[in-house]
Each structure stands twice: as structure tokens, then as C-alpha cells.
Specification:
By secondary structure, this protein is mainly beta. The protein has one domain: Quinoprotein alcohol dehydrogenase-like superfamily (Methanol Dehydrogenase, Chain A), CATH 2.140.10. 3% of the residues lie in helices and 40% in strands. The strands form 8 sheets. A 5-stranded mixed β-sheet has the order 14-15-16-17-21, with no helix packed on it. Strands 1-33-32-31 form a 4-stranded antiparallel β-sheet, with no helix packed on it. Strand 2 and strand 3 (73-81) form a beta hairpin. The longest helix is centred in the N-terminal third of the chain and has 14 residues, at 3-16. The protein is globular and about 55 Å long. Residues 1-19 have low confidence and may be disordered.
Length: 422
């Protein structure tokens, strides 16, 4: 690629990084705002493996990345074991037509050292990070095995493999966009840190050590970019604490400690001036934190309330209106006042849960690990609106658009929402 072509590509990327996604898109983990909210209409309430299915296609390989939507296309990642004379694992990006599920392209992005993909938790995969689409760029992240940017035709713009760390159970966190930076966590077995890449070129911009006090250093959370006192902050939980970081240089602005909490997975959410963070294993606690005015160690001054019972280990919380909804890994769903922490209701749902809930049209959508989707009214009293079994294991979170829910299972990708019952 010549200098002029590289410059044109960089300018095109830079121009599109101001916002993520257009109306109707689901461009990153947990949707347009990264917090599980959809303004879609006609979203299905009832389905099964054979009812209200627009299409179902097989997805090659292994992967728990959630699908993302942009411009009438679906993007996801997977890891395919090479055969036929080719050795090792192929880490791939896929693009499908959202209308019919037909594959538009399937591109190998990395072929890592097989040793890098060996240590893997049974609920993880080599392709668990959800892609991110901004403008005409698709970012894919495979943790310690590499990060890359592609155009929406599947051409690789850059690859970055210099950010290394010793993973535990593989990678789980997804990247976030902070202006012209692609940011992600590198919380491995030791010396955890946050990293930022130049989104246009893939060049490392900064690495910020975590200095975690927890005995177990590894975690898997996805950062969230929020506005605090008129400025952007990157909020990122890790083992032992959650921190707010300054995007230009990665400087830690504040932190709130939560003891020995580790293996933190849930992505934070932000509403009513409060940041909601789950503290991870072994005893999860949901913290409501006031980031405004926080500086240094804010543990004793900026925690508004805590909730122990029902706090999730894996799925992220969801705020709808004045309520926060969550589901524990063992299936205890809870609705709590988002401002005070007072519990409105709890209800046991069947199965174990890893996927993060989403909201649409005054409803909360949750899915268990067996592929059963529960639709609950977003209200201060519990009302089950639908219980929908696909009959396939699923850990990925939903993507939502007008008239449709996209669901990744262990072997397939579904578009729910045909001409049947909506």
C-alpha cells in the first residue's frame, strides 16, 4: 500500500470515529450505547427453534462473540481448526446479509501460535470478544492473540500483535472506542494493564498499569466510555477495583476498591449520575458509584449504595427508566430502584445465565445458557411475557433491530422475527 493510499484510509477512518453506528444498527457489545438499550420497534416476543424464525445458518468453528449489526449486515468472529494440510487455529471475521443470512465474506485475520489458544475456560472460546463497527471500519479483537481493523468488504487495514500479556482462561473482554482510540483490558495472570491503540493505524498509544491489590489479578470486563463533569472518562473494572481513566493518556483519575473481587466480567452501566459495577468472584456485590468529582481513592466518599443479593458474576446489569435489572449466574432475576438500591422484586428463572440482558419497547430480554430466552415486562412488578426455547447452548448476548432479534448459539446464528407472531 502506497503512502497516498495509507493516508486516504487513515483519513476515512478518522472521519467516521466520532460516532458508533447509525439508526437501526447494533454496532458493538450491548448495542449503540454499550448498555443494552434498543429503540427498535416490532421486536419479537415469542419464538422457538421452528417458529418465528426468519433464517438460521450454521456458523463454522467456535466462538462466543455476540453478533453486531451495521448497514444491513451482521458481523461476528469465530475460531476454526484448520484441516487439509493447514495446521493450527484460524481466527476469522465473518459478514452475513441480515435479510437472508447468506455469507458475504469470511476472512482469516490471524493464525496464532497454537500454544496461545490452549488455556481456555469451558465457557470461553478463542473468539469471545464482540466486534465493533464504526463508520466503514470493523474492529476485531482476540485478546492476547491480536487486534485488527478491516473495511466492511473484508479487507484488513491493520493488524496489531505487540500487546502481549499472560491470559488466564483465555480472553473475554471486548474493545471500546474512545474518540480516536480503541481501548481494551489486558488483565492477565500478572501485571494487568489497560491498552489503547490508534484506531486509524493500530499503533499503541498508551499502556496503563492497574496496580491491582487483589490476589487474583485476572479479569475480563469491557470498558465503558462516559461523560463526567463535561469530560470523557473510560471506566474499566478489574480485579480489586474499578477505575476511571483519562482517554488522551490513560491516566487513572479515580478508583473504588472492592476487596478481593476478581475475574470481573460484567460491563458497567451509567445512569442517573451513577455508575453500576459488579465486583466479580467470589462474592459478587453490585456497587452504585458517583463518578462526578471523584479523584484518587474514592472508596469512602463516592459509593452511593451496595447490593449483595442477586448480583451477577457474568452478565451485565441493565437500567431501564428508574429501575436496574440484573440476573445472577444461577438465574435469580432482580429489579431494583436504580437511585436507592431498594429491591422491587426477585424471581427465579430456569437455568444458568451468562448473556447480558437487553431492553426494547418496555421489555427486558434475558437468555440462559441452554438457549431459553425470557421476555419480562420492564416494571416494578414481575410479569413474564414470553419463554422461548431454541434448544441450543448459548452464551452470547442478543443483537436487536426493527422486527428482529439476532441470536448466536453454539453452532448457529438465528434471525428471529419472520411473518409470525411478533
Amino acid at each position: 500500500m502506497g503512502m497516498r493510499t495509507r493516508l486516504a484510509c487513515c483519513c476515512a477512518v478518522a472521519l467516521c470515529l466520532g460516532s458508533i453506528g447509525a439508526a437501526g444498527d447494533w454496532p458493538q457489545f450491548r448495542g449503540p450505547d454499550g448498555q443494552g438499550h434498543s429503540d427498535a420497534t416490532g421486536v419479537p416476543v415469542r419464538w422457538s427453534a421452528t417458529e418465528n424464525v426468519a433464517w438460521k445458518v450454521a456458523v463454522p468453528g467456535r466462538g462466543w462473540s455476540s453478533p453486531v449489526l451495521a448497514g444491513g449486515r451482521v458481523f461476528l468472529t469465530t475460531a476454526v481448526q484448520n484441516t487439509g494440510g493447514k495446521s493450527g487455529l484460524s481466527l476469522r471475521a465473518l459478514c452475513l446479509d441480515s435479510a437472508d443470512g447468506k455469507t458475504a465474506w469470511d476472512v482469516e485475520v490471524f493464525r496464532p501460535d497454537p500454544a496461545k489458544a490452549r488455556a481456555m475456560h469451558q465457557k470461553n472460546s478463542p473468539a469471545s470478544s464482540t466486534p465493533l463497527v464504526s463508520g466503514d471500519t470493523l474492529f476485531v479483537h482476540f485478546g492476547h492473540m491480536g487486534t485488527a481493523a478491516l473495511d466492511l468488504s473484508g479487507n484488513v487495514r491493520w493488524r496489531q500483535t505487540s500487546i502481549n500479556y499472560p491470559p488466564v482462561h483465555g480472553n473475554g473482554g471486548s474493545p471500546a472506542l474512545a474518540g480516536d482510540l480503541l481501548v481494551f483490558t489486558c488483565d492477565g495472570a500478572s501485571d494487568p494493564f489497560m491498552a489503547a491503540l490508534d484506531a486509524a493505524s493500530g499503533a499503541p498509544r498508551w499502556k496503563t498499569p492497574r496496580h491491582s491489590p487483589a490476589r487474583s489479578q485476572f479479569s475480563f470486563s469491557t470498558p465503558l466510555v462516559i461523560d463526567v463533569d463535561g469530560k470523557k472518562q473510560i471506566v474499566s473494572p478489574t480485579s480489586g477495583f474499578v477505575g476511571g481513566y483519562d482517554p488522551p493518556d490513560g491516566r487513572e483519575i479515580w478508583r473504588v476498591r472492592y476487596g478481593e473481587g476478581y475475574s470481573v466480567v460484567p460491563r458497567p452501566v451509567f445512569a442517573h449520575g451513577l455508575l453500576y459495577v459488579s465486583s466479580g468472584f467470589d462474592t459478587p456485590i453490585l456497587y452504585a458509584i458517583r463518578p462526578s468529582g471523584a479523584a484518587g481513592d474514592a472508596t469512602d466518599t463516592h459509593v452511593a449504595w451496595r447490593l449483595r443479593k442477586g448480583a451477577p458474576l457474568t452478565s451485565s446489569p441493565l437500567v431501564v427508566g428508574d429501575e436496574i435489572y440484573m440476573v445472577s449466574d444461577t438465574g435469580i432475576a432482580t429489579c431494583t430502584d436504580a437511585k436507592t438500591g431498594n429491591v422491587h422484586w426477585t424471581h427465579r428463572l430456569d437455568g444458568n445465565f451468562s448473556a447480558s440482558p437487553v431492553s426494547a419497547e418496555g421489555r427486558v430480554y434475558l437468555q440462559n445458557e441452554s438457549g431459553v430466552g425470557f421476555v419480562v415486562k420492564a416494571a416494578r412488578s414481575f410479569e413474564l411475557l414470553g419463554e422461548n426455547d431454541l434448544g441450543e447452548r448459548s452464551l452470547a448476548s442478543y443483537a436487536v433491530s426493527d422486527g428482529a432479534v439476532f441470536i448466536r448459539t453454539e453452532s448457529h446464528l438465528y434471525r428471529i422475527g419472520a411473518d409470525g407472531d411478533k
